[in-house]
TrEMBL record:
Its main location: membrane. PANTHER family: INNER MEMBRANE PROTEIN (PTHR30506), UPF0126 INNER MEMBRANE PROTEIN YADS-RELATED (PTHR30506:SF3). Pfam families: Gly_transporter (PF03458). Belongs to the UPF0126 family. GO terms for cellular component: plasma membrane. It comes from Pontivivens nitratireducens. This is Trimeric intracellular cation channel family protein. The keyword Signal does not apply. Keywords: Cell membrane, Membrane, Transmembrane, Transmembrane helix.
């Protein structure tokens, strides 16, 4: 039940970010729905395919598609009311990533995979949808921007989820710790300018 609730929440929030990106690209309502669904379900679809689950989550349960469509149509009629759609997009995306990482970890854990797979599935679930959204709408993907702690936040959240579950055996505690740390790092990047070290090219030695 925890996984289902978090998954539905992640789908809804990611769909909002997809629709906001569609509004910035000035797409029609069908474009809104398409980009919202791609964003909301891209990460989970990649996760389920990689884990070889019996059925991809939104095919097994059409409620996810309905939730994404509702979010897209809602944004289509209300996006103009936002003072800054880009700022709203960034913060909603941060919240969506924080919700999606523990879902990916929980799904892989329930299938009894080892911890490296749990880390990767947390990142895949949180990052692939946003990556697809930005590529389709011809934007520089947030996950690839050097000035944003995006994949780093997802990896750190997945890692704390694994550690807390190993220490306590409590899935709720580990999911909350994961979501909290992921959002904390992502928010720090947005609000305080936290950065990870980047590669600097140097001239070759003589």
């Amino acid at each position: 039940m925890l996984v289902v609730v978090l998954d539905l929440l992640a789908v809804f929030i990611f769909a909002l970010t997809g629709a906001l990106t569609a509004s910035r690209a000035q797409l029609d309502v069908v474009g809104f729905v398409f980009v919202a669904c791609l964003t909301a379900m891209g990460g989970g679809t990649a996760r389920d395919v990689l884990l070889n689950r019996e059925a991809v989550f939104w095919i097994a349960d059409p409620r996810y598609v309905a939730v994404a469509m509702v979010a897209a149509i809602f944004v289509f009629f209300t996006a103009h009311m936002l003072e800054s759609r880009l700022k709203a997009l960034y913060w909603l995306d941060a919240l969506a990533v924080a919700v999606a990482v523990p879902v990916g970890v929980a799904v892989a854990r329930r299938m009894e995979f080892d911890w490296p797979v749990l880390l990767i599935m947390g990142m895949v679930t949180a990052c692939i949808g946003g990556l697809a959204r930005d590529v389709v709408c011809n934007e520089v993907p947030l996950v690839l921007k050097a000035r944003d702690l995006y994949a780093t936040a997802a990896l750190a959240g997945a890692a704390i989820d694994v550690v807390v579950f190993w220490a306590t055996g409590n899935a709720l505690f580990s999911a909350l710790a994961c979501a909290g740390l992921t959002f904390f790092i992502r928010a720090g990047s947005l609000a305080l300018g936290w950065r990870a070290p980047v590669y600097r090219s140097r001239p070759p030695r003589m």
